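Q: What structure does this chain adopt?
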Amino acid sequence: MTQLRRAAALAAAAIGGTIQLFPAARADAANPVVFKIFNDTTVPIKELYDKDSQRDFWGINDLSNPVQPGHFFYIKFTQNSYAHCPNMLHDVKLVFANGKTKILTKIDVCQYDVHVHKP
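A:
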């Protein structure tokens, strides 16, 4: 099993198999990193927060409108001397319209997009 597949399997197992990580288009140092979160549930995502995995503060809700089922939201990260590929780990907190919350930790946004299957 390749290191990439092993990391994806471990990440999915760590969060109960309710998400899948899919390889994303790789960004070089000159381009921003585009990280996508797909809502494959039947419940809208009404709030989405992201942060560098080394930080404690979630910051503000990134959504101006809910992410409806079957749609996705993307976050564009600018690379700099502190945060750059291949080592950009981010945490994501999703708040669903039914009140459930899901926190995804240490996602390598340089390599993966996320598909959420259960709220």
